[in-house]
Specification:
Chain B: It comes from Paenibacillus faecis. The structure holds 2 protein chains of 2 kinds. Chain A has 14 helices and no strands. By secondary structure, chain A is an all-alpha fold. Chain B has a 6-stranded mixed sheet, with helices on both faces.
């Protein structure tokens, strides 16, 4: 069994090759690492200049805060990069007038869509992995476990998959890349910003109601579910598990009380369904003619013209 | 090999195809002609499984395109009128990609690709980046791409458009070779006289309706009611031209330095009588022949008149 052939289909192979052959790939990696490096340096500067913690040195708590700040910054960068890299994968082929030829090959719609998505996400993964040396600064000071780092990276992968599947879907639905990019950023904005704002709005109302209520306090509030739809909320709940309880306004008097669901788990469950739907739409819509799922026994036309006879008459 | 029945395609309120019927047998080279926007590309896109018809049926090799597109794609090589290439690929990589996309094993591709490059005269460009190729070379490379899985049917939408005369000739030569290889080819083109040399049949489409279909010679014969006679006489040409205007079946007479051009509506017998009459009247005839109409004339004649029905009425 040739493992390369098994895992790397022609579309994926093409995407990997072509993406890395452009100078843009190297420039993207350089820019991304540069931005992350500058952010890390900025955070270190703020922390060591007496703004936080004890002036002049970093203790594990400060180091952890730095890790959190870097993780949030990375999440924001992913939110910016993923739509840019995925929202043009199909519409870009359409604009370059290569899509029709790709669609007349034997590659299935699912193969084309998933390969495009995987190759784009592969590149973003490369960007993130390239920033690992920046994270190593945090490890110099301690306070963060490798498992936390791993959890955060897996969460990034999921967020990339979410934004990527949205980008690929819009790229399939809209003929122009510009429209697709705008729609993907718009949807990303709803997921990142609107859910957070709705949570803050709902939180203020809920807190006011709890304050005014005279009966026994509820074990938890529904507002946490809103924050569970926000990537930043979910990320913080991975870094600080107690954040889920805070978000759900779990009654502080009861030590046994817990959040109904960790924010990150709600995030993953809800958006996993979304990812499946987005990809399903993209796969269904890429080809106008889908045909029947089963293969025909034999063609209806007589004369045997449609047999698999190969007519090799190469010069 | 290709069977289209009552094929319709509507975009919003616009009818791009109006009940098109077409049958192309195996090994036929079919020239698809018509003005821009007539429905050629729409028909070809439906056959290439890139467009769903609004109604009707289209079959390739017996497989309905809407029901078994996977089977249809195995059997067709499609070259769109406008296409892009992956510029960062080398020509061999480009063909490897499409070969792999059709499920051809690598070792078979290694054997096949040099042959394809030789067929399209690009062997010396095997290591060149696609970006560096001229437009004509890219057209030929795209044609090689169509052939990579050895399809039975080639759907070529304006393969010679935008090419310089030399590149057109090269493309035409390749298509002749493909014809010899027994491929069923549907080719649309605006360069109609070039098509005439290689097509077996033509179909003329206008405003989404097939207005004529058949062998080139048949269609030309049907249009011979409009034959143009070219007459040269030793002297008194002006006098003869004036006299011919009053003859039966003559609709128009033009006289210039090359001779007399008579638009003649009669058949072979009437034409013979006309010649006899001219000679009998004492004119010294140097030549008397029917001007050869090429495919372009046929096309212009048909599309000028309207539908097949109108044409048939005209013929009758």
């Amino acid at each position: 069994m040739n493992w390369r052939n098994m895992w790397i289909n022609p579309v994926l192979d093409k995407e990997f090759r072509l993406r890395m052959r452009t100078p843009r790939a190297a420039v993207s990696v350089l820019s991304y690492v540069l931005v992350m490096g500058l952010l890390a340096m900025g955070i270190i500067y703020v922390m060591t200049s007496g703004g936080m913690g004890q002036a002049g040195r970093i203790d594990p708590t400060s180091s952890r805060m730095m890790f959190y700040a870097l993780s949030i910054a990375q999440l924001v960068l992913i939110a910016f990069m993923t739509p840019a890299l995925t929202a043009g994968v199909i519409s870009g082929e359409r604009e370059k007038q290569t899509l029709n030829m790709l669609l007349t090959t034997q590659q299935s719609s699912a193969t084309i869509i998933l390969s495009k998505l995987v190759s784009s996400l592969g590149f973003i993964t490369l960007l993130i992995v390239a920033t690992l040396p920046v994270y190593s600064i945090v490890f110099l000071y301690g306070g963060v476990s490798p498992s936390q780092l791993l959890s955060v990276f897996i969460f990034y992968l999921f967020v990339m998959l979410l934004l990527g599947s949205i980008g690929v879907m819009y790229s399939t639905l809209f003929k122009r890349t510009m429209v697709s990019v705008i729609m993907t950023y718009g949807t990303g904005l709803i997921i990142f910003l609107v859910t957070g704002l709705v949570f803050l709005f709902a939180l203020s109302i809920e807190q006011a109601q709890q304050y005014a209520a005279s009966g026994p306090p509820q074990p938890y509030s529904w507002v946490g579910y809103v924050l569970g739809l926000n990537p930043a909320g979910a990320l913080i709940s991975i870094l600080e598990p107690s954040f889920s309880e805070s978000a759900f306004l779990v009654n502080g008097g009861n030590f046994q009380a817990k959040a109904p669901i960790p924010l990150w788990l709600e995030f993953v469950l809800v958006y996993a369904v979304g990812i499946v739907i987005f990809l399903w739409v993209a796969i269904r819509k890429i080809r106008p003619v889908r045909g029947k799922r089963f293969r025909p026994e034999r063609p209806r036309e007589t004369g045997g013209e449609a047999t698999d006879k190969v007519m090799r008459k190469q010069p | 090999m290709i069977e289209i029945k009552n094929l319709c395609k509507t975009y919003g309120g616009f009818e791009a195809l109006k009940s098109v019927n077409l049958t192309i047998s195996k090994g036929t080279v079919f020239g698809f002609v018509g003005p821009n926007g007539a429905g050629k590309t729409t028909t070809m896109s439906i056959l290439a499984t890139l467009l769903a018809p609004s109604s009707g049926s289209a079959r390739v090799g017996g497989f309905e395109v809407t029901e078994y597109p996977h089977e249809v794609r195995k059997r067709i090589g499609y070259m769109p009128d406008f296409f892009g290439v992956y510029d960062q690929f080398k020509t061999t990589e480009y063909l490897h990609f499409y070969g792999a996309s059709y499920g051809i094993p690598r070792d078979e591709r290694e054997r096949l690709i040099p042959q394809l490059l030789e067929l399209v005269n690009l062997s010396d460009k095997k290591d060149a980046y696609v970006d560096s190729l001229s437009r004509g070379m890219k057209q030929r490379l795209c044609l090689a791409r169509c052939l990579v899985h050895d399809p039975e049917v080639l759907i070529l939408d304006e393969p010679a458009s935008g090419l310089d005369p030399r590149a057109r000739i090269e493309m035409r030569e390749i298509l002749k070779e493909l014809k010899l290889m027994g491929k069923t080819i549907i080719i649309s083109s605006h360069i109609l006289p070039e098509l005439a040399e290689m097509v077996d049949e033509i179909g003329v489409i206008e405003h989404g309706t097939m207005i004529a279909q058949g062998r080139v010679s048949e269609i030309q014969n049907r249009l011979r009611v409009k034959r143009v006679l070219h007459i040269r006489v030793l002297d008194r040409a002006g006098e003869l031209a004036a006299r011919l205007k009053d003859e039966a079946h003559v609709s128009q007479v033009l006289h210039d330095e090359t001779g007399i051009h008579v638009h003649f509506g009669g058949g072979d017998a009437e034409q013979s009588q006309l010649l006899g009459g001219i000679i009998g009247s004492g004119y010294q005839v140097i030549s008397f022949h029917e001007a050869q109409s090429n495919l372009e004339d046929v096309f212009l004649e048909i599309t000028k008149g309207g539908t097949e029905h109108e044409l048939a009425q005209h013929v009758d």
